[in-house]
TrEMBL record:
Keywords, comma-separated and alphabetical: FAD, Flavoprotein, Oxidoreductase
Xref: Pfam families: DAO
Lineage, top ranks: Eukaryota, Fungi, Dikarya, Ascomycota, Pezizomycotina
GO molecular function, one term: L-pipecolate oxidase activity
Occurrences of domain FAD dependent oxidoreductase (ranges): 15-405
Cofactor(s) named in the record: FAD
Protein name per UniProt: FAD protein
Transmembrane segments: none
Gene3D superfamilies assigned to the protein according to its UniProt record, in alphabetical order: D-Amino Acid Oxidase, subunit A, domain 2, FAD/NAD(P)-binding domain
Similarity annotation: Belongs to the MSOX/MTOX family.
Length: 460
């Protein structure tokens, strides 16, 4: 592969591992880049598309520019303008995007408040810049103002605002739309196979493809890992990124309840992390944007480190999903936190069992910044497009081009520092961007084994 800052890489073959938002949007962007015009592009995934336990595949994802960080707010605002295109053939069409509004709140004096206040300033400024009506963002200075705006008889938090320009996407439908765009290019071959390791050159300083679970190999000039929360099983990311499990519950509603709650805004409390998405097809979703659970597993060190003596076995947090644990349910502390959140947010909704639950895995980084960069050890043969940190989905229409720009060494300036390979690693990856609620340090199987719920379970 030839590459230099002046001439973008032009590999003969590019292998993208992972067909979530990061991998699929990269495939689409590369298929239109002149420098990849003669490149054979292959996308591999361990499961048939859409992979049911991928973090990009679910009933909903929040599409918001409500960020404390102006760079992500700006990029999200760009993405939103594409989500809002609602002709049937367009991304937001056929119910893939719904602009329900978002009530973003915090418990004053607690974690999350700073984030919500910064986010408020950012969206007010963004709307002014975009010429959006002044009343699209309204401060909600009290519990009463929040309850009145949510309109369910309940609420959460005691300070916040409503942004009527925020909405939610049918995440699985969005992914199917994206896949159709990629298929239409006729440039990309899809394969279902699980990668068990990267292949390295004899000297260990180049990645030359991947080894599959059936022990065959697939060679490539250029490999992109877009493997979400599974990425730490393929490359050593200790101190840079790890999988954290996040809880979701789906609640069945009657027709009358659907009718009553169908037009409510989303409600997200950044202090507890608890949020609800308005129901569709008689199902309401409650979930927690939290520090999550780790699932520590001992694995052989997947990295080749030329000239260095590395540990043979390392411990990393990896996803546990119903694919490898068919009976996986929610730990008692999560069930209790969800019950409390529902009582507060929807006090008139009679309690009932979940129709389904799920643990979905974030690819967390210490700062919630993505990792979109060449791995420094492999002479530009390995690129990482991951680190979604629980907020990557909304960027579906724009992130592929950003990733392709970074591959071509033209990373958007505001993200150059944020998405780069970090030389300084932390001892323990805990995402501290101010947006996370719940307890820190929970281990999945320890929480599963508990028979009683710790009294602090729904507090920060
Ligand atoms: C519960 C939850 C709620 C979220 N809410 C929001 C939200 O409201 N708004 C928002 O913007 N974002 C949200 N996010 C974050 C967003 O969904 C993710 O950042 C984004 O989907 C990450 O995409 P990805 O492509 O990195 O990972 P994924 O979608 O997980 O894709 C990775 C793919 O790699 C494949 N793979 C992994 N290992 C291998 C292997 N060894 N061989 C072959 N294939 C492999 C997997 O099968 C998978 O298909 C949420 C995430 C979760 C989990």
């Amino acid at each position: 592969m030839s590459s230099s800052p002046a001439s973008p890489p032009s590999p003969k073959s590019a292998l993208i591992v992972g067909s979530g938002v990061f991998g699929l949007s990269t495939a689409l962007a590369l298929s239109t880049r002149p420098s990849f015009a003669t490149t054979t592009i292959t996308v591999l995934d361990r499961l048939p598309f859409p992979a049911h336990d991928a973090s990009s595949v679910d009933s909903s994802r929040i599409i918001r520019a409500d960020y404390a960080d102006p760079a992500y707010a700006g990029l999200a605002s760009k993405a939103q303008s594409i989500w809002r295109q609602t002709e049937p053939s367009q991304l937001g069409g056929e119910g893939r995007y719904s602009e329900s509004g978002l009530v973003l709140v915090a418990d004053t004096g607690n974690g999350g408040e700073h984030y919500v206040r910064e986010s408020y300033s950012n969206v007010v400024a963004l709307n002014k810049r975009n010429g959006v009506a002044d009343n699209s963002v309204t401060e909600l200075p009290s519990k009463e103002a929040i309850a009145k705006t949510v309109g369910t008889g309940g609420g959460s938090g005691d300070w916040g605002y409503i942004n009527r320009c925020s909405g939610w996407a049918d995440a699985e439908a969005g992914m199917k739309w994206l896949r159709a765009q990629v298929d239409a290019t006729k440039r990309v071959t899809f394969k279902t196979a699980e990668v068990i390791s990267l292949l390295y050159s004899p000297s260990g300083d180049k990645v030359t493809g991947v080894r599959l679970k059936n022990n065959t190999i697939l060679e490539a000039d250029f490999t992109i890992l877009a493997t979400g929360a599974w990425t730490p099983s393929l490359i050593d990311l200790r101190g840079r990124s790890q999988a954290t499990g996040q809880v979701i519950g789906y609640i069945p509603l009657t027709d009358a309840e659907q009718e009553k709650l169908g037009s409510m805004p989303m409600l997200l409390n950044m202090s507890t992390g608890m949020f609800i998405i308005p129901p569709r097809n008689n199902v309401l979703k409650v979930a927690r944007h939290g520090y999550g659970y780790t699932n520590p597993v001992a694995i052989s060190n997947p990295s080749s480190s030329p000239g260095k003596q590395e540990e043979k076995e390392i411990i990393v947090s990896l996803p546990a999903t119903t694919h490898n644990h068919p009976d996986l349910t929610l730990p008692p502390e999560a069930q209790s936190a969800m019950k409390h959140a529902l009582q507060s947010m929807l006090p008139t909704l009679p309690a009932r069992p979940f129709s389904a639950t799920k643990i979905c895995w974030y690819t967390d980084t210490p700062t919630a910044d993505f990792i979109i960069t060449y791995h420094p050890n492999y002479n530009k043969s390995l690129f990482l497009a991951t680190g979604g940190s629980g907020h990557g989905y909304k960027f579906l229409p724009v992130i592929g081009d950003c990733i392709a720009d970074c591959i071509e060494s033209r990373c958007p300036p505001e993200f150059r520092e944020k998405w780069r390979w970090r030389e300084n690693v932390v001892d323990n990856v805990v995402t501290e961007d101010g947006s996370r609620g719940g307890r820190r340090g929970m281990v999945l199987w320890d929480e599963m084994a508990r028979t009683h719920v710790p009294s602090t379970s729904s507090k920060i």
